[in-house]
Design goal:
heterodimer, A: 11-stranded mixed sheet, 21 strands, B: Rossmann fold, 6-stranded mixed sheet, 4-stranded antiparallel sheet, about 30% strand
Chain lengths: ~425, ~260
């Protein structure tokens, strides 16, 4: 892996000036060189191999928006405000919402960098395989900043991560900064979809700051092609009584790693970290969810459903950490996996670390197969095996999709899910 | 409609049906009675096509076709319906949606136009009215959290909507209180028709007070040991199944011979 790290590091931009930003980027660069990219010896990455990146001799992508053809999928929802990204670069916005400021990260770093200085500097990079975050920091520039003013309900905003139609083994970094002021509300939909046969890597870091009583709903659809790689890290820092609801729907066939961390730092904050995943082909989806109860009286729930077909592999690692003194914490976790093929694999690991006394915590993890009784019952009423399987797997994922914030989204994403579940199923 | 000839069936190498013969014509209602372990449920499951039942000998022909060659789905689409002794709970799958999917799968198989949700709902309302079932069952998951009686009524409701040609009711009466039993019986009676055959598999004579069968068969040790009319059911009720085991079979056979 070191060869890949060296070649990526060599092409990182040289340090320019002595501003905090230049120093931050330089630090990112040196951290990347020392931490490197995670291999399987790192506990957090033991199920996910990055060898493909090395084999493909992945290089740092140069984001030129020039004449390249772009794959732009149909927008996930009929939403007024849409942000388009291309290979990690901010391209444009359509529509406007009062009280909401959307700018490219580059613009903010040029015009008013102090505004996001603390947040950018706060991104922790430790030894647990966070080389991607270090690399992301070293290249800070592409990305987008969304700022919702106090007490403003921004409604829905679509963030489309598009990619050039033909890319080589190139790695693109991007940073999203979301700030919700006191009492603000936002539902951000992220759409990661590509169809290219190329082997690009998108490495996105999302940093969210939720001030008192603000509410962020983040819904992420990933439906990427088989050869593409998506690495995301989402850090959410939550003040008093803020609410964060995250739902990931992973339907693509590529290699995907999500790290989502909610820091419940203010009393009464709560988060729901949910995900449903359909693995097919040779897809590899690795979810690491972290709920950190730092302040007292906070609530967290994690709900994860994985369906693995063909030769796919799904990893779920859900961690709840209740810090000393965080009394009154309420933490729930449930993960379930459904194996639809002999060659598929689901690895699930619940982790609870509790250092406070007055805590309610529960977790449950199961991996199983479709209920033969139910399959026969349905077939005995005239359904084909495929229809019966689809209905059962949809039902299995329903606890996640039911929690989506609107009827239209439940319907749209439900259809996407249903489509992903279709196709030949090899029985165990 | 259905002709079973010398049927031998094993589960896990153990022979459960040991040469069963049965003929059922259109418009007829047959009751099959027998003690626990005599193979009653096995018969229902074999006809519906459940996995794990190995037919080692004999034939089952249904409307001139070799039933055993068909998949469970094909059997359903050809008009075979099994009301389960233990209907399966399927949480998260809406009862109405499930039934519509099933009906449309069958219609498609028969080259009939599929029903849209409006057309389907109209049909459902009609059936509910006939069966005098409330519509609260419609909005829940398939059998999810249903009481024993509700599950059995849901089976009858499915049967009413799917309109099978051959319906097998596997101990639909077991575990029902008298009101639920009456409701189920009324449902079945309303479905009696000259082109439909019904097989009632039951342990007790009680159900037959409400559904008058044309024929009663006694199943013991894996085969039909006696045939008769409703009076045979009364005889069994009177004597009990122990009697059957202790020489009753011979008596019945002598009587019917």
């Amino acid at each position: 892996m070191s060869e890949l790290v060296n070649s990526l590091a060599e092409n990182l931009p040289a340090k320019s000036g002595d501003s905090w930003l230049a120093n931050l980027k330089a630090r990112g660069r040196s951290q990347f060189t020392s931490v490197g990219l995670p291999d399987k010896k790192v506990e957090e990455w033991k199920y996910t191999s990055l060898l493909a990146l090395e084999q493909r001799k992945t290089v740092l992508g140069t984001s030129s928006t020039s004449s390249k053809a772009v794959y732009k999928p149909k927008p996930l929802a009929d939403i007024t405000v849409q942000i388009s990204m291309l290979d990690g670069e901010f391209v444009d916005i359509s529509g406007k919402a009062a009280g909401v400021r959307i700018q490219s990260l580059r613009t903010v770093l040029q015009d008013n960098p102090e505004e996001i200085k603390d947040l950018l500097q706060s991104l922790e990079i430790d030894q647990r395989g966070q080389g991607f975050s270090a690399l992301n920091t070293a290249t800070l520039d592409p990305g987008v900043v969304i700022h919702v003013a106090s007490e403003v309900n921004a409604g829905e905003i679509l963030l489309q991560w598009n990619s050039s139609a033909s890319l080589g083994a190139e790695l693109f970094n991007s940073r999203v900064v979301l700030v919700l002021e006191k009492g603000a509300k936002l539902h951000l939909l992220e759409q990661f979809e590509n169809r290219s046969e190329d082997s690009s890597v998108l490495n996105v870091v999302v940093q969210c700051k939720l001030e008192e009583s603000s509410e962020l709903t983040l819904t992420r659809l990933q439906d990427q092609s088989a050869s593409s790689v998506l690495i995301t890290r989402t850090d959410v820092s939550q003040s008093n009584n803020s609410y964060f609801r995250f739902t990931a729907l992973d339907l693509g066939t590529g290699l995907v790693r999500h790290d989502v961390k909610a820091d419940l730092s203010g009393q009464g904050a709560s988060c729901a970290l949910n995900g449903a995943c359909v693995g097919s082909g040779q897809s590899h989806v690795d979810h690491h969810l972290y709920a950190n109860h730092i302040a007292g009286d906070c609530k967290s729930s994690q709900l994860f459903r994985a369906v693995a077909k063909d030769r796919s592999r799904v990893v779920f690692n859900g961690k709840v950490h209740v810090f000393k003194g965080a009394d009154g914490s309420d933490a729930k976790q449930s993960s379930a996996g459904l194996l639809l093929s002999k060659l598929a694999e689901i690895d699930t690991k619940p982790e609870l670390e509790i250092y406070a006394d007055e805590v309610i915590a529960s977790h449950g993890a199961t991996v199983g197969q479709l209920d033969d009784q139910a399959l026969f019952y349905m077939q005995s009423r005239g359904l084909s095996e495929q229809q019966a399987t689809n209905l059962l797997t949809m039902a299995f994922c329903r606890s996640v999709t039911d929690q989506l914030p609107s009827d239209s989204l439940r319907e749209t994403l439900g259809e996407r899910l249903s489509r992903a579940l279709e196709g030949a199923v090899e029985h165990v | 409609m259905l002709k079973i000839d010398n049927l031998h069936v094993s589960i896990d190498g153990k022979e459960i049906l040991t040469g069963l013969n049965l003929e059922v014509g259109a418009g007829e209602v047959h009751a099959i009675m027998g003690p626990n372990g005599s193979g009653k449920s096995t018969l229902g499951n074999v006809i519906a096509g459940r996995e794990g039942y190995v037919v080692t000998q004999g034939t089952v022909s249904y409307q001139g076709k070799d039933l055993l060659e068909l998949s469970p789905q094909e059997r359903a689409c050809e008009g075979v319906f099994l009301a389960f002794q233990y209907p399966v709970e399927i949480p998260g799958v809406n009862n109405t949606y499930f039934l519509r999917t099933a009906l449309n799968a069958q219609r498609k198989y028969r080259n009939e136009e599929e029903l849209d949700s409006v057309g389907f709902l109209r049909l459902v309302r009609e059936k509910l009215e006939v069966l005098r079932i409330g519509d609260d069952l419609l909005h829940r998951g398939v059998n999810e959290g249903f009481s024993g009686g509700e599950k059995k009524r849901n089976e009858i409701f499915q049967m009413a909507v799917l309109e099978p040609k051959l319906a097998i009711l596997d101990e639909t009466d077991s575990g029902l209180d008298i009101d639920a039993l009456k409701a189920v019986a009324e449902g079945v009676n309303s479905l009696r028709s000259p082109d439909r055959a019904i097989i009632l598999i039951t342990h007790y004579q009680r159900l037959l007070e409400y559904i008058q069968p044309d024929f009663v068969h006694v199943l013991a040790r894996g085969k039909i040991v006696a045939d008769g009319g409703p009076e045979l059911a009364l005889k069994l009720e009177e004597q009990g199944y122990t009697w059957l085991e202790e020489g009753g079979i011979a008596q019945l056979q002598a009587g019917s011979a």
